[in-house]
């Protein structure tokens, strides 16, 4: 059973998502919150598999909430997915840098929304859709200084190749196809890279790949 926490200041949005999730046999909504502070408290209490968190909220916004969740080692198994509108694209990369596993636009199709929740629960980053790649390309064109290198020298050549492909939004299966290796080996390369680089999840691995210069928007 996938345990989900909804954090959004709009009751209509929460009720709509909850109604959709409650129809699924493998998903359970464990709690709802109307602001980031309440959401953080419920994350600590409920330990959900997935926390769907709105970016803009009163009291404490979604990015700060996500940053505090990512900084707490006791919440390492909580996968945060940010909820956003098309008009708030400038926040997306900040959300990924804060520790979000990905983001969803609120007008997403129901079947895509349910798929995304299941993807996030598995620990995979929601970085494959074309809109996500475009947003990453846009907001990492001038990455913050001080991250060049970022421990990449500790990676093997295969691990670097795997990370670079993951940063382009490829799944483990697609990385395996590109490198002519098994999906299990591709997953091992990426997991080892994450461990060596001390990143929380695949999304932060992609952020680091851009910030370190391993991949660039132009190469996407």
Write the layout of secondary structure elements.
Blueprint: E1 2-7, H1 11-22, E2 27-33, H2 36-46, E3 50-54, H3 62-71, E4 79-84, H4 92-98, E5 102-105, H5 110-121, H6 130-139, H7 157-167, H8 172-179, H9 183-197, H10 202-211
Parallel strand pairs: 1-2, 1-3, 3-4, 4-5
Helix pairs in contact: 2-3, 3-4, 7-8, 7-9, 7-10, 8-9
Compact description:
The protein has helices spanning 11-22, 36-46, 62-71, 92-98, 110-121, 130-139, 157-167, 172-179, 183-197, 202-211, and strands at residues 2-7, 27-33, 50-54, 79-84, 102-105. With 220 residues, the chain is an alpha/beta fold. The chain has a five-stranded parallel β-sheet, with helices on both faces.
Describe this structure in words.
The protein is an alpha/beta fold and 220 residues long. The chain is 48% helix and 13% strand. A five-stranded parallel beta sheet has the order 2-1-3-4-5, sandwiched between helices. The longest helix has 15 residues, at 183-197.
């Amino acid at each position: 059973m996938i345990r989900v926490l909804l954090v959004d200041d709009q009751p209509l949005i929460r009720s709509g998502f909850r109604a959709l999730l409650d129809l699924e046999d493998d998903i359970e909504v464990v709690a709802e919150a109307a602001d980031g502070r309440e959401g953080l408290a419920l994350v600590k209490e409920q330990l959900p598999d997935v926390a769907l968190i709105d970016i803009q909220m009163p009291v404490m916004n979604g990015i700060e909430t996500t940053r505090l969740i990512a900084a707490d080692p006791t919440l390492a198994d909580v996968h945060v997915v940010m909820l956003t509108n098309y008009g708030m694209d400038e926040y997306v990369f900040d959300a990924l840098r804060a520790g979000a596993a990905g983001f969803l636009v609120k007008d997403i199709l129901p079947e895509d929304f349910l798929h995304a929740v299941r993807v996030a629960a598995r620990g995979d980053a929601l970085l494959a859709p074309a809109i996500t790649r475009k947003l990453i390309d846009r907001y990492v064109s001038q990455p913050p200084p001080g991250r060049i290198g970022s421990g990449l020298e500790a990676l093997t050549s295969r691990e670097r190749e795997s990370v670079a492909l993951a940063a382009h939004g490829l799944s483990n299966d697609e990385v395996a196809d590109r490198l002519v290796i098994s999906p299990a080996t591709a997953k091992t390369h990426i997991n080892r890279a994450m461990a060596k680089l001390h990143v929380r999840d695949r999304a932060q691995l992609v952020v680091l790949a851009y910030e370190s210069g391993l991949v660039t928007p132009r190469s996407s």
